[in-house]
Amino acid sequence: MHATVGDQLVQHGRVVGQHDRIGEIVEILGQEGNPPFRVRFEDGHTGICSPGPDTEIRHKEPQK
Question: Helices H, strands E: what count in the chain?
Fold first, then answer.
């Protein structure tokens, strides 16, 4: 799972009724874009994530 700073990390809810958590990747701690990532979530919480199978990376659009 590769990412760059500014991409979105989406952790999908694991149980019925649990909402997805969306955060912005603010730092890549692994090598060559690999996890772990430092992520700032919508609620202001910042944490280090090593994404699992319930997570996706939404790459930012390249600027034109």
Answer: 0, 5
